[in-house]
Amino acid sequence: MATSAQHEEGRSAAGPVVWCLASAMLFGASTPASKFLLGEVGPLWLAGLLYAGAALSVAPRALRALPSRASITRSDLLHLGGAVVFGGIVGPVLLLSGLAIAPAASVSLWLVLETVATAVLAALFFKEHLTARTWLSVALVVAGSAMLSSGEAGSGRAVLLVSLACLAWGLDNNLTAVIDRFTPAQVTFAKGVAAATVNLGAGALLEGGSASAVTIGGGLLVGALSYGASLLLYVASAQQLGATRSQLVFSTSPAWGLLLSWLFLGERLTAAHLGASALMGAAIWLWHNEQHTHRHVHHAVSHQHMHRHDDGHHDHAHDTPCAPDAWHTHEHSHDDTDHAHEHRPDLHHRHEH
User: Is residue 198 domain-resident?
Assistant: First the structure.
């Protein structure tokens, strides 16, 4: 019989899973939309517009409760800088370069390689413990991708560009999952400002030309939803679920793209589409129901991230009342703790095994 602690763990994880599914749906819609916009502007221009829209959409939340300069460490800046460079600047340009020379449907399906890159990097370099059940989940996602990609036409150059984009985003995902000094909105805003500045400048120099008001507005709107709101939701979920597990949920974005294409573009759903969706659903069910418990030590730390007060880790006092099951963000401190409970590789559980 499940204990009350296990029920609390399940309830606290449900929110981040929903956030990540919403993030995947928003991002899945971006590939066909971006393919349409690439008819007028180049990859650098569009990457800049997308992230300008992302920055604008989260600016009001990002500029609230900025951390003090004294509280920001060199490690914080390195993690944020890496996420900005690889996730905000490099990854989008590589993706859009591949999208410019390949069908949107093919690119959407190839993006599931981001899950594999995230898992391998998490296990090798970021101390994220992956169980056999999680690796099986990764295998199911890859199998679903192979089922969808069977018979897809596309050039080797496009596959290479999208694969490199997935590698860049895999590194970004792992760096994002350990950022605990900045809020999800602040991480997204930093990516948006840096990517918009660099890529719009590079686009003006290397691609030239100009964009119509419709294309600029479309790029900003897609960026606000598919990169702004989507990134904010993804960062919040990754901090709670860990890089690999959040990425397994996010890897449903190609399925969302297919569903939206069927609903709004009249594209045909095949047996392969349905089979791949079933495999991805099974992958999410497997990792979400895994159990991992052992005694572990938490050292004293002060940081900032989304949290609740019913998870066994956050029992600090508030100046104003806060419901135990309410998600919220502020800087808080933890004392040294030695205990055992069921957990995932979130910000508090990146220990050696």
Answer: yes
Interatomic CA distance for residues 41 and 47, integer angstroms: 10
What angle (nearest 5°) sits at the alpha carbon of residue 284, between those of residues 28 and 330? 75
* Residue 228 amino acid letter: G
Alpha-carbon gap, residue 29 to 259, rounded angstroms: 9
Query: Domain span at residue 205?
Result: 23-129+153-253
In a domain, 227, yes or no: yes
Closest CA to 247 of 40, 56, 55, 87: 87
Three-state DSSP at 64 gives coil
Token pair for residue 243? 């890089």
Q: Are 54 and 291 in contact (CB under 8 A)?
A: no
CA 174, 276, 83: angle at the middle one, nearest 5? Answer: 15
Q: What percent of the chain has pLDDT over 90?
A: 29
* Closest alpha carbon to 270 in 121, 150, 101, 181: 150
> How many domains does the chain fold into?
1
Per-residue model confidence as pLDDT tens digits over 279-337? 878 887 887 676 546 454 555 656 555 555 655 556 666 666 666 655 566 565 656 66
Q: Does residue 63 form part of some domain?
A: yes
31 Cβ partners below 8 Å, 6+ apart?
Answer: 99, 104, 107, 108, 111, 257
**Model confidence pTM above 0.85:** no
* Cα–Cα–Cα angle for 259, 260, 263, rounded to 5 degrees: 90
**Enclosing H/E stretch for 334:** strand 328-334
At 214 the pLDDT is 92
Those residues of the chain that have pLDDT short of 50 are: 1-12, 292, 294, 296, 341-344, 346-353
